[in-house]
Amino acid sequence: MRFFIELSYKGTNYHGWQVQPNANTVQAEINKALSLILNAKIEVSGAGRTDAGVHAKQMFAHFDWDKEFDFHITIIKLNSFLANDIAVRSFFKVRDEASSRFDALSRIYHYNIVQQKSPFKTTAYFVHKPLDVNQMNLASQYLLGKQDFTSFSKANTQTFTNNCNVMVASWQWQDGELVFTIKADRFLRNMVRAIVGTLLEVGIGKIKAKQVKEIIAQNDRCMAGTSVPANALFLSEIEYSKDIFI
Is 85 in the active site? Predict the structure, then answer.
């Protein structure tokens, strides 16, 4: 039988999602906790790979186990065992072929920026220069649609294609923070942070909004802006078709 687990985490203390030798990762913590609670060797497969320091308000992973179990009690036990910066939200029974990664229809990321330094805004990026948000939103429209996003990807990522279909890309002020929202069917490694870095160059007037279209067409990471810090990036939502759930 296959199950989905829904969780959230603050990524500050972890070297990303994926298991790595000699590094503390979220996936490793979930594997360890589930294996202990269910008294079996459990290895989860995640919906994606968040980088070191990146957070997830909603992450899904799947795993196989041959027994039914009490979801509610297991959640309580897991959350008692896990550190405070990881929280298990729910379990779902799914079809045997369902994949938390490949069956995801879309993912939404948010990036938070503040313009006044604050010791309490540890999950937002402080930018002191004035930003032209209108121009940043204009530039964001060039990201929409299915395109090759090589210019915003780390090199040698071993992906079959760098094409992504971006459905939403916009900036909005929310509770004193400037928040970038981007929704796509898939994301490349470092893609969101590179996009935000490029759009900030538009915001401070270093480049024109229309140059973002030219940067995309170049298929060259060197043409885009510097990647912004990971601490302000959140994987916020993952969407699935209802027919994979039982």
Answer: no
